[in-house]
Amino acid sequence: MILIAPHLFFFFFFFLLSIPSLSSGANTLSVNQSLSGNQTLISLAETFELGFFKSGESSTYYIGIWYKKVKTRTIVWVANRDTPIANIFSSKLQILNGNLVLLDESNTQIWSTNITPTPTPTTSAVLLDDGNLVLRYDSSSISITPIWQSFDHPTNTFLPGGKFGYNKQKNTKQIITSWKSTEDPATGPFSLEVDQDEKQYVIKWNRSVEYWASGSWNGRIFSSLPEMRLNYIYNFSYVDNENESYFTYSLYNPSYISRLIMDVSGQIQQQTYLESLDQWNLFWTQPRSQCQVYAFCGPFGTCSQTELPFCSCLTAFVPKSLNDWNLSDFSGGCVRRTEFDCGIKEEKPGFIQGYVPVNYLSTFLETETPESEMGESACRRSCLEDCSCDAYSFILKICRLWNSENLNNVSLLFVSDDVNSRTFPVNIKVSSSDLPNSSTKIKTKVLVVGIVSGFCGLVFLCSIGIIFYRRLKRKGSRDNGENFEREFQENGRNVRYLVDPGILSAEDRKGIDVPFIEFKTILSATDYFSLANKLGQGGFGPVYKGILPGLGEVAVKRLASQSGQGLKEFKNEVLLIGKLQHRNLVRLLGYSMKDHEMILLYEYMHNKSLDRFIFDRTLSVCLDWDLRFDVIMGIARGLLYLHQDSRLRIIHRDLKASNVLLDEDMNPKISDFGLAKIVKGQETEDNTTRVVGTYGYMSPEYALDGFFSVKSDVFSFGVVILEIISGKRNTGYYHNQEAFSLISYAWGLWKSKRPLELVDLALVETCNSIEVLRCMIVGLLCIQEDPRDRPTMVNVVLMLGMDIESLPDPKEPAFVSKRSIDRLPSTSSKSEINQLTVTQEEGR
Question: Choosing from 654, 705, 713, 760, which is the catalytic residue?
Answer without folding.
Answer: 654
